[in-house]
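*** Residues and shapes ***
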Amino acid sequence: MRILLAAAGSYGDVAPYTGLGARLRGAGHEVALATQESFAPLVRGAGLTFRPLPADTSGGGGRKGGGRKSGGGNRQLMRTAAAFVRELGAGLVDAAEPGADVLLLSTTTAPLGWQVAEAMDIPSLGVYLQPTHPTREFAPVVSGGRSLGGPGNRALGRFSLRMTDRVYADAIADLRTRLSLPRAGRGAVRRRQEEAGWPVLHGFSSAVVPRPADWREGLDVVGNWWPHHDPQTPLPAPFEDFLRAGPPPVFIGFGSMAAGEGARLSELAVSALRLAGLRGVLQEGRAGLMGQGDGILTVDGVPHALLFPRMAAVVHHAGAGTTAAGLRAGVPAIPVPVMADQPFWASRLAGLGAATAPIPFKELTAERLAEQLGAAVREATYKEAAGAVSRRMGTEDGAGHVLKAVERLA
């Protein structure tokens, strides 16, 4: 079967699909992953066919940019997001032209992929990294992580979907014209998909977000799919030497967040480590973290799956993928959420007892970070809670669930 996966955004929005694609390819299917050009090496390294999408966020100016709000407030953010998805939609049609028997669509690409699936008359399946459907059990993941109570959560969830419909409206209109499909009003295609029970498999652990009881049939939580990497690949010798030279260090990194703030964050991170009396591994990321001196190592491009199990704790921005990687490794976290869904995952970590209280990015100081680091490393309850979640995650086979669902579609 020819499978086309489509995903776009930052590294964390794309990397999990390389592992999912590799699992599908291992079952004998032809798998292509359509995403931004900057991720082509990642895709090909997993043995998948790469198909380019034109929209790119690597420079920090797109929808998932460097973590600081654009000037102009919410209206400007909406216009920026609409331009991003309009460009993305045109590229998705080109990516699908070589042919496919089924489309697997991420949260970002699904509203566009529905139009392509309709035009090609092929089945599609949602493979989401975040919960997006309204529920009484929690507020929308992009709303900051605070519950408004059952009715409020569900109402805000519906409002969030209407705002998404607005962002995608022009892109969908363009696509339907290009694909010779009849016109559809704003939100009409989404409502049709919902009424038809369009299936969505969510790639996170039910230990972290249990499936809401008020979700319709066809919405399932199946467990994570993980970024592809060769498990036999060792850490480079300098990293091993550092890790063996002393007690387990803590990891500090902000992924694709905080572009342009590297100097400030580097100084802050080193000061916090000194105050806490801990060794540290700084991951450069988009911020460009750098640290020097005894007990400090700077790395970049090292998979979390290799690093995190060797850490005493992890400080991160609480993106969905990094949150899951820390829990999988069974290490406590100090979440420093920046934007979007990050406060949601940070609050989940803290609620599980696997993390200290989140430190909002704007409130981050060396003193506060040092205090949280000390607690996370020295209080056994955090590691015990993270270990319990890790064991639950180890029983899940998210990619296997997707494989079964794809083969049922066939």
In short: Confidence is low (pLDDT under 50) at residues 58-72. The chain is about 45% helix and 10% strand. Residues 2-196 form a domain with the Rossmann fold fold (CATH 3.40.50.2000). The radius of gyration is 21 Å.
